[in-house]
Amino acid sequence: MSEPAAVLRLHYYPSNASLAPHIALREIGVPFELVLVDRAAQAQHAPAYRRLNPTGRIPTLEDGDLVLWETAAILLHLGERFPAAGLVPPPGTRLHAQLLTWLFHLSNTPQAEMRGYFYPHTRSDDAAALPGIKAKAEATLAEMFTYIDTALGQGPFLLGATYTVADPLLLTLIRWGRGFARPLHDYPHLGPYAQRMLARPAVAAAFAAEGLSAPFV
């Protein structure tokens, strides 16, 4: 008799970084459970959650007795765990190397810089300095997304014709940038890209399940 399939649980909060693996899970089409981590109640710092994810951040993925955190790691794991979905090119190929580049770039560069925009208080205890930190982060992000917009070109996806786990992450970042002085949907390639992504059934299902409403990006 075969072993029962491991239960997949994604610990999430609406519109957080967990949105990217949530979309990926729906693209893959396997059963999974969504477990709300109520940030409004600081549930990410509760002892039970900290035992799963010692960083106290979101998301966390339980795959049976395997527990993963860090969005890019979860995305890569899901794509490799379910290769039939085609969301991660075969290791050793040129496309796989390009995917790794984008996953690490998006998570380590623009996503990390967004903390300065949304949480400037984490970078200074001087309240008078916070507006300047936020403004500097937004200017830096504009430079970063100008590069991403150019690299994306006509797409249709980050890796050209190949849809990968990097695409839900980029869409999540575009959504977060909808309040910038120049929203990310206003860029010549990022805007149409976001609309193509929003038209995907898995994306629509994830947004609906998280209770997200327009404007989506």
Structure, described:
The protein has 2 domains: 8-85, Glutaredoxin, CATH 3.40.30; 94-200, Glutathione S-transferase Yfyf (Class Pi), Chain A, domain 2, CATH 1.20.1050. Helices cover 47% and strands 8% of the residues. The chain has helices spanning 19-28, 47-52, 71-81, 94-108, 110-118, 130-152, 166-176, 190-198, 201-209; strands spanning 8-12, 33-36, 60-63, 66-69. β1, α1 (19-28) and β2 form a beta-alpha-beta unit. α1 runs parallel beside α3 and α4 packs parallel to α5. The radius of gyration is 17 Å and the shape is globular. The relative contact order is 0.13. The model has no long low-confidence stretch (mean pLDDT 96).
